[in-house]
Amino acid sequence: xxxxxxxxxxxxxxxxxxxxxxxxxxxxxxxxxxxxxxxxxxxxxxxxxxxxxxxxxxxxxxxxxxxxxxxxxxxxxxxxxxxxxxxxxxxxxxxxxxxxxxxxxxxxxxxxxxxxxxxxxxxxxxxxxxxxxxxxxxx
Length: 139
Hints:
The mean pLDDT is 81. This protein is globular. It has 2 helices and 9 strands. It is 10% helix and 44% strand. Strands 1, 2, 3, 4, 5, 6, 7, 8 and 9 form a 9-stranded mixed β-sheet that branches.
């Protein structure tokens, strides 16, 4: 569920599965993982495992993600990154230009970012006015 205190930043929590205690023990738990959206940027952080901040304007499409899930954590291939703590609540973002990110301290570029969020519908509703909704069957 997003939270919005007195600041203009809206925070979204990652969706966790039954392995949440494992993620927490590894430094990837809810206290260190979040997606924050403000007027100009989006920050995605999964503890020490993944970090990216990019302009909202670079989001060219957002949609529910019904693609195959090949595991949990932060992993990617060819500029497509899966950053998830569950297989539910999946959202896909298309980014142009590609976003800069780091995983394990190594720099990378992200053209498509797949996230597992506790409230994916609220996230999509917030982002969609600036980016068209993508057809989930094209991913």
